[in-house]
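Pasting as-is:
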Amino acid sequence: MSSECLSTVRCFGGEQHRFQHASTALNCDMIYAVYLPPQAAEGPVPVVYYLSGLTCTDENFVTKAGAQQHAAELGVAIVAPDTSPRGEGVADDPEGSYDMGLGAGFYLNATEAPWSAHYNMYDYVVMELPRAVAEACPQVDTSRAAIMGHSMGGHGALTIGLKNTARYSSFSAFSPIVAPTQCPWGHKAFTHYLGADQSTWADYDACLLLGQATDQRPILIDQGTADNFLEEQLKTHLIEEASRAANYPIEVRMQEGYDHSYYFIASFVGDHLRFHASHLMS
Protein backbone atom coordinates (compact mmCIF):
# COMPACT_ATOMS: atom_id res chain seq x y z
CA MET A 1 0.00 0.00 0.00
CA SER A 2 2.96 2.33 0.56
CA SER A 3 3.01 5.21 -1.94
CA GLU A 4 6.08 6.74 -3.55
CA CYS A 5 6.00 10.51 -3.97
CA LEU A 6 6.89 11.28 -7.60
CA SER A 7 6.72 15.06 -7.34
CA THR A 8 5.76 17.95 -5.06
CA VAL A 9 5.21 21.56 -6.10
CA ARG A 10 4.14 24.63 -4.14
CA CYS A 11 0.71 25.90 -5.16
CA PHE A 12 -1.47 28.66 -3.59
CA GLY A 13 0.25 28.24 -0.26
CA GLY A 14 -0.29 24.50 -0.26
CA GLU A 15 1.35 21.56 -2.00
CA GLN A 16 0.44 19.59 -5.12
CA HIS A 17 1.70 16.01 -4.82
CA ARG A 18 1.82 13.11 -7.27
CA PHE A 19 2.07 9.57 -5.87
CA GLN A 20 2.50 6.07 -7.27
CA HIS A 21 1.60 2.84 -5.51
CA ALA A 22 0.95 -0.84 -6.21
CA SER A 23 -2.81 -1.39 -6.39
CA THR A 24 -4.19 -4.76 -5.33
CA ALA A 25 -7.68 -3.89 -6.61
CA LEU A 26 -6.35 -3.19 -10.10
CA ASN A 27 -3.38 -5.54 -10.10
CA CYS A 28 -1.02 -2.86 -11.41
CA ASP A 29 0.82 0.30 -10.39
CA MET A 30 -1.38 3.38 -10.15
CA ILE A 31 -0.74 7.12 -9.96
CA TYR A 32 -2.88 9.60 -8.06
CA ALA A 33 -2.61 13.31 -7.27
CA VAL A 34 -3.23 15.03 -3.93
CA TYR A 35 -3.55 18.75 -3.33
CA LEU A 36 -2.95 19.73 0.30
CA PRO A 37 -4.24 23.22 1.12
CA PRO A 38 -2.21 25.46 3.46
CA GLN A 39 -4.59 24.59 6.34
CA ALA A 40 -3.22 21.03 6.28
CA ALA A 41 -0.11 22.33 8.05
CA GLU A 42 -2.27 23.16 11.08
CA GLY A 43 -4.45 20.05 11.29
CA PRO A 44 -6.59 17.50 9.43
CA VAL A 45 -8.54 18.71 6.39
CA PRO A 46 -11.52 17.11 4.62
CA VAL A 47 -11.17 15.73 1.10
CA VAL A 48 -12.95 15.99 -2.24
CA TYR A 49 -12.29 13.16 -4.69
CA TYR A 50 -12.32 14.15 -8.37
CA LEU A 51 -12.90 11.53 -11.08
CA SER A 52 -11.84 12.44 -14.61
CA GLY A 53 -13.42 11.52 -17.93
CA LEU A 54 -12.53 9.46 -20.98
CA THR A 55 -8.88 9.61 -22.16
CA CYS A 56 -7.76 11.51 -19.04
CA THR A 57 -5.11 10.66 -16.45
CA ASP A 58 -4.52 12.03 -12.97
CA GLU A 59 -2.98 15.16 -14.51
CA ASN A 60 -5.77 16.74 -16.59
CA PHE A 61 -7.83 18.17 -13.75
CA VAL A 62 -4.78 19.13 -11.70
CA THR A 63 -3.23 21.19 -14.50
CA LYS A 64 -6.32 22.60 -16.27
CA ALA A 65 -9.18 23.17 -13.81
CA GLY A 66 -7.65 25.83 -11.56
CA ALA A 67 -9.14 24.07 -8.55
CA GLN A 68 -6.22 24.56 -6.16
CA GLN A 69 -6.93 28.25 -5.56
CA HIS A 70 -10.46 27.45 -4.41
CA ALA A 71 -9.33 24.47 -2.35
CA ALA A 72 -6.73 26.66 -0.63
CA GLU A 73 -9.35 29.24 0.27
CA LEU A 74 -11.76 26.61 1.57
CA GLY A 75 -9.26 24.38 3.35
CA VAL A 76 -10.09 21.15 1.54
CA ALA A 77 -7.77 18.57 0.00
CA ILE A 78 -8.38 17.27 -3.53
CA VAL A 79 -7.53 13.74 -4.62
CA ALA A 80 -7.50 12.92 -8.34
CA PRO A 81 -6.82 9.32 -9.38
CA ASP A 82 -6.14 7.96 -12.85
CA THR A 83 -9.13 6.81 -14.93
CA SER A 84 -8.17 3.18 -15.49
CA PRO A 85 -5.57 0.55 -14.71
CA ARG A 86 -2.31 0.94 -16.65
CA GLY A 87 0.76 -1.02 -17.58
CA GLU A 88 1.99 -4.15 -19.30
CA GLY A 89 -0.60 -6.89 -19.43
CA VAL A 90 -3.57 -4.57 -18.85
CA ALA A 91 -6.21 -5.18 -21.51
CA ASP A 92 -7.00 -2.42 -23.99
CA ASP A 93 -9.50 -2.02 -26.80
CA PRO A 94 -8.05 -4.00 -29.71
CA GLU A 95 -9.32 -1.28 -32.04
CA GLY A 96 -7.56 1.40 -30.01
CA SER A 97 -10.68 3.52 -29.52
CA TYR A 98 -10.82 6.16 -26.81
CA ASP A 99 -14.02 4.95 -25.12
CA MET A 100 -12.90 1.45 -24.08
CA GLY A 101 -9.88 0.08 -22.26
CA LEU A 102 -7.01 2.32 -21.16
CA GLY A 103 -8.30 5.70 -19.98
CA ALA A 104 -11.87 4.39 -19.95
CA GLY A 105 -12.38 2.38 -16.76
CA PHE A 106 -15.96 3.64 -16.18
CA TYR A 107 -15.54 3.33 -12.40
CA LEU A 108 -17.06 -0.15 -12.21
CA ASN A 109 -15.89 -3.66 -11.32
CA ALA A 110 -15.61 -5.65 -14.55
CA THR A 111 -16.92 -9.21 -14.51
CA GLU A 112 -15.94 -10.31 -18.02
CA ALA A 113 -12.53 -11.56 -19.23
CA PRO A 114 -10.02 -10.14 -19.98
CA TRP A 115 -11.20 -6.96 -18.25
CA SER A 116 -11.95 -8.47 -14.85
CA ALA A 117 -8.26 -9.08 -14.17
CA HIS A 118 -7.59 -5.34 -13.81
CA TYR A 119 -10.67 -3.17 -14.38
CA ASN A 120 -11.99 -2.78 -10.84
CA MET A 121 -12.04 1.00 -10.58
CA TYR A 122 -15.10 0.96 -8.30
CA ASP A 123 -13.26 -0.98 -5.59
CA TYR A 124 -10.17 1.14 -6.14
CA VAL A 125 -11.91 4.48 -5.66
CA VAL A 126 -14.20 3.42 -2.81
CA MET A 127 -11.83 1.33 -0.71
CA GLU A 128 -8.18 1.27 -1.77
CA LEU A 129 -7.54 4.88 -2.74
CA PRO A 130 -8.68 6.37 0.61
CA ARG A 131 -6.37 3.99 2.46
CA ALA A 132 -3.44 4.94 0.23
CA VAL A 133 -4.14 8.66 0.70
CA ALA A 134 -4.49 8.35 4.48
CA GLU A 135 -1.12 6.63 4.68
CA ALA A 136 0.70 8.96 2.28
CA CYS A 137 -0.93 12.16 3.61
CA PRO A 138 -2.07 11.79 7.22
CA GLN A 139 -3.13 15.46 7.08
CA VAL A 140 -6.15 14.31 5.02
CA ASP A 141 -9.17 13.28 7.06
CA THR A 142 -10.63 10.63 4.76
CA SER A 143 -13.62 10.19 7.09
CA ARG A 144 -14.86 13.60 5.86
CA ALA A 145 -15.20 13.14 2.11
CA ALA A 146 -17.16 14.31 -0.92
CA ILE A 147 -16.94 13.17 -4.54
CA MET A 148 -17.20 14.89 -7.92
CA GLY A 149 -16.30 14.19 -11.53
CA HIS A 150 -16.60 15.04 -15.22
CA SER A 151 -18.33 13.09 -18.01
CA MET A 152 -17.37 9.42 -17.42
CA GLY A 153 -16.07 10.65 -14.08
CA GLY A 154 -19.37 12.39 -13.41
CA HIS A 155 -21.02 9.03 -13.94
CA GLY A 156 -18.49 7.57 -11.50
CA ALA A 157 -19.04 10.25 -8.86
CA LEU A 158 -22.83 9.94 -8.97
CA THR A 159 -22.99 6.14 -8.96
CA ILE A 160 -20.27 5.70 -6.34
CA GLY A 161 -21.86 8.39 -4.19
CA LEU A 162 -25.36 6.98 -4.45
CA LYS A 163 -24.11 3.51 -3.49
CA ASN A 164 -21.97 4.77 -0.60
CA THR A 165 -23.92 7.52 1.14
CA ALA A 166 -22.17 6.81 4.44
CA ARG A 167 -18.80 7.62 2.87
CA TYR A 168 -19.54 10.90 1.05
CA SER A 169 -21.37 13.97 2.35
CA SER A 170 -22.25 15.27 -1.12
CA PHE A 171 -21.80 14.46 -4.82
CA SER A 172 -21.45 16.65 -7.90
CA ALA A 173 -20.76 16.32 -11.59
CA PHE A 174 -19.88 18.25 -14.71
CA SER A 175 -21.46 16.90 -17.91
CA PRO A 176 -22.10 13.44 -16.43
CA ILE A 177 -23.12 10.31 -18.31
CA VAL A 178 -26.29 10.01 -16.23
CA ALA A 179 -27.81 6.95 -17.94
CA PRO A 180 -25.07 4.74 -19.42
CA THR A 181 -27.64 1.97 -19.97
CA GLN A 182 -29.28 4.31 -22.51
CA CYS A 183 -26.35 5.74 -24.48
CA PRO A 184 -23.71 4.43 -26.93
CA TRP A 185 -20.73 5.00 -24.60
CA GLY A 186 -22.40 2.99 -21.86
CA HIS A 187 -23.64 0.22 -24.13
CA LYS A 188 -20.18 -0.35 -25.57
CA ALA A 189 -18.32 -0.28 -22.26
CA PHE A 190 -20.88 -2.23 -20.25
CA THR A 191 -21.20 -4.97 -22.88
CA HIS A 192 -17.45 -5.57 -22.70
CA TYR A 193 -16.92 -5.06 -18.97
CA LEU A 194 -20.15 -6.53 -17.56
CA GLY A 195 -21.45 -8.81 -20.30
CA ALA A 196 -24.55 -8.97 -22.46
CA ASP A 197 -27.01 -9.42 -19.56
CA GLN A 198 -28.27 -5.88 -19.20
CA SER A 199 -29.85 -6.58 -15.81
CA THR A 200 -26.32 -6.35 -14.37
CA TRP A 201 -25.85 -2.86 -15.81
CA ALA A 202 -28.38 -1.17 -13.53
CA ASP A 203 -25.90 -1.20 -10.64
CA TYR A 204 -23.88 1.49 -12.45
CA ASP A 205 -26.63 3.79 -13.74
CA ALA A 206 -27.23 7.00 -11.74
CA CYS A 207 -30.81 7.41 -12.97
CA LEU A 208 -31.72 3.92 -11.79
CA LEU A 209 -29.80 4.24 -8.52
CA LEU A 210 -31.69 7.43 -7.63
CA GLY A 211 -34.86 5.39 -7.41
CA GLN A 212 -33.24 2.94 -4.98
CA ALA A 213 -31.66 5.49 -2.65
CA THR A 214 -32.86 5.34 0.94
CA ASP A 215 -30.44 7.93 2.32
CA GLN A 216 -30.36 11.14 0.27
CA ARG A 217 -27.30 13.36 -0.08
CA PRO A 218 -27.04 16.77 -1.79
CA ILE A 219 -26.30 16.54 -5.53
CA LEU A 220 -25.19 19.34 -7.87
CA ILE A 221 -24.90 18.89 -11.66
CA ASP A 222 -23.64 21.45 -14.18
CA GLN A 223 -24.20 20.81 -17.89
CA GLY A 224 -23.26 23.08 -20.79
CA THR A 225 -25.93 23.70 -23.42
CA ALA A 226 -23.29 23.77 -26.20
CA ASP A 227 -21.88 20.37 -25.23
CA ASN A 228 -21.67 18.31 -28.44
CA PHE A 229 -22.23 15.09 -26.44
CA LEU A 230 -25.37 16.31 -24.68
CA GLU A 231 -28.07 14.84 -26.91
CA GLU A 232 -26.59 11.44 -27.78
CA GLN A 233 -24.44 10.50 -24.78
CA LEU A 234 -25.20 12.61 -21.70
CA LYS A 235 -28.99 12.97 -21.80
CA THR A 236 -29.20 15.25 -18.77
CA HIS A 237 -32.98 15.41 -18.94
CA LEU A 238 -33.15 11.75 -17.90
CA ILE A 239 -31.72 12.41 -14.43
CA GLU A 240 -34.09 15.34 -13.97
CA GLU A 241 -36.96 12.96 -14.76
CA ALA A 242 -35.51 10.30 -12.44
CA SER A 243 -35.13 12.87 -9.67
CA ARG A 244 -38.79 13.80 -9.86
CA ALA A 245 -39.92 10.17 -10.07
CA ALA A 246 -37.82 9.16 -7.06
CA ASN A 247 -38.66 12.29 -5.05
CA TYR A 248 -34.90 12.82 -4.67
CA PRO A 249 -34.13 16.55 -4.98
CA ILE A 250 -31.05 17.45 -7.02
CA GLU A 251 -29.82 20.73 -8.49
CA VAL A 252 -29.23 20.67 -12.24
CA ARG A 253 -27.85 23.87 -13.78
CA MET A 254 -27.88 24.16 -17.57
CA GLN A 255 -25.07 26.58 -18.37
CA GLU A 256 -25.80 28.53 -21.54
CA GLY A 257 -23.14 28.33 -24.26
CA TYR A 258 -20.65 26.12 -22.40
CA ASP A 259 -19.16 23.01 -23.97
CA HIS A 260 -17.61 19.75 -22.67
CA SER A 261 -14.10 21.08 -22.11
CA TYR A 262 -11.97 22.06 -19.13
CA TYR A 263 -12.83 25.69 -19.88
CA PHE A 264 -16.31 24.75 -18.67
CA ILE A 265 -14.98 22.94 -15.60
CA ALA A 266 -12.65 25.82 -14.70
CA SER A 267 -15.57 28.25 -14.93
CA PHE A 268 -17.62 26.47 -12.26
CA VAL A 269 -15.20 24.36 -10.23
CA GLY A 270 -15.21 26.98 -7.49
CA ASP A 271 -18.97 26.58 -7.12
CA HIS A 272 -18.60 22.84 -6.80
CA LEU A 273 -15.87 23.02 -4.19
CA ARG A 274 -17.87 25.58 -2.17
CA PHE A 275 -20.89 23.28 -2.43
CA HIS A 276 -18.91 20.36 -1.04
CA ALA A 277 -17.15 22.44 1.61
CA SER A 278 -20.49 23.66 2.94
CA HIS A 279 -21.48 20.07 3.65
CA LEU A 280 -18.05 18.84 4.77
CA MET A 281 -17.71 21.63 7.30
CA SER A 282 -21.25 21.42 8.70
